[in-house]
Structures
1.
Amino acid sequence: MKTLLQINAGIQGEHSQSSILADKLAEALLSNAHGCRHIKRDLSVNPIPHLDHGTFQAFADPAAAKTPRHKAGLALSDTLIAELKQSDTLVLGSPMYNLMIPSTLKSWIDYITRAGYTFQFSESGPVGLLQGKKAFVIIAQGGKFLGTSADLETPYIQMTLGLIGITDIEFIYAEGMAMGPESADTGRQEAFNKISAFSL
């Protein structure tokens, strides 16, 4: 059975533009994928804790998890990695906050990026262990940063997913969402038009 993993990172929950678009994309992908399992995480409802030193040590050496907090952090990391490993497709809805991804999404990335589990070091550098997956990334921006030096989000997501072996990435943008109603409508419609072309 195929599995689609959806991560919504907008802090406004169901009112987040990136989350609305991610929901639409997941719906479009699943519409022709009969029997596909759908795992959805809304980080505005269940945020991932920021990584602390003790939890990070436990990632490398599970026996180092001594406190309830660190044991819980290790267990959460194991769960998030298991979800990612069993998925064939990743849908990631991310707004741009202050030129970068939300901190809750950074926490998710911190918890799923673990040496020996999702990537490993080799003589030539890190090698991703989650190859063969497809990722769709929806980025909603208040301004229009695509193609400029201010678009730090696109290369960061590309590099972090690439580190764990996910290199087949389709980016979908909704730009100008805070530049007035007409601009927001145009940005949404352009994203919807692209979403309508996808299926699994």
2.
Amino acid sequence: MPDMTSTPLVLLIWAVAGYLLGSVPFGLLISRAMGLGDIRAIGSGNIGATNVLRTGNKRAAALTLLLDGGKGAVAVLIARQFAGEDAVQLAALAAFLGHCFPVWLGFKGGKGVATFIGLTLALAWPVGLAACATWLVVATISRYSSLAALMAAGMSPVWAALLGQGQIFILGIVLAALVYARHWGNIQRLRAGTESRIGKKG
């Protein structure tokens, strides 16, 4: 019998599902629920965990990090349970795009680092752990969240190749390119020496 888990209709359904999961703006929702105001008016204006941390509320930042990562992982795990690997990778990419370009916020979302980590852990946990370790080492040494994110994303295809997870090598390159594109402003500030360090309030 033909494989019905990777038909165009099935792939479209999982792309939409992944996008909708990824588009939930947890940073904005958590900040408002905790009385921190509109996170888009603080610091960089980003809805991710790093900017939430600039409010000084570590609990809100931790929740944002966990939930933004979790939605990427959930998109992958649900697709893997009910569909084929093509649908899994498409759902992962769509979840990342949903976080970065949520329809509910005029397509102005976060930079996708936590979601990237979450979906990478779900796609291939050895690569996800290696990416987390890369982020942690670079962030600890430099105190730049953006630089840590760039290194973690950039190294993910390398880790995929080295750890025998070639099935996500191409997706890793695509996601890394998107992370770099979303961090273009950060790259310019890093080069100019004006990038904010971890923990600095907005």
